[in-house]
Amino acid sequence: GWHGDRLVFSAMGAAAETRPGGVEAEFGRMPEVPPPSECEPWLPLRFMSDPDGRPGWLAITDARVADDRGTMWMRVTGRPVSRAVMAFVADIVPNVVLRAAGRTGAGTSLDNTIRFGPEPEGDWVLVEVDPHLVSGGYIHGTARLWSEEGSLLGVASQTAGVMLFD
């Protein structure tokens, strides 16, 4: 992506159409957590906008704490779950990994990968983060993305540079 003659970001992506007659299977089980309506909101209000007052990602994201390990129900306000929404909410991985390490912060993404399963439906996605490690100023973790009905919709992985909010 460019702004004038300045490169703002670069990305690589791949997508494929469903192959007829392909094998369908998922592994693992969605964690047993309450539905979104019974979970407390996760709202670190000081990060609702950037330093210039523009709305940040939390201003359009509804996140509910589903358990004490950092699993969260998430949605983008006013939008049904889509693959784009799943990729957007999976960016919570660095925050949750730092939380597991006893710190508050986020990460500057170095790589994000998401692998999609079936087409999502509904309004909410359960983001189950597996923190791997924080080392040398870098965060590493993965997430499983679940439908409200318990279907595995995708898996995400991320490496990011640490940004602490002390």
Describe this protein with a few key phrases.
two-stranded antiparallel ribbon; single chain; mainly beta
Walk me through this protein's architecture.
This protein has two helices and nine strands, in the order βββββααββββ. Strands 3-4-5-7-8-9-6 form a seven-stranded antiparallel sheet. Strands 1-2 form a two-stranded antiparallel sheet. By secondary structure, the chain is mainly beta.
Radius of gyration: 16 Å
| Total beta strands | 9
Average of per-residue pLDDT values: 88
Please report the distance between the alpha carbons of the first and last residues.
Answer: 32 Å
The largest pleated sheet is described as: 7 strands, antiparallel
Widest β-sheet, arrangement of strands = 3-4-5-7-8-9-6
Low-confidence stretches: none
Structural class: mainly beta
Shape: globular
Task: List the secondary-structure elements in sequence, H or E.
Answer: EEEEEHHEEEE
Strand content: 35-45%
Number of helix segments? 2
The percent range for helix content is under 10%
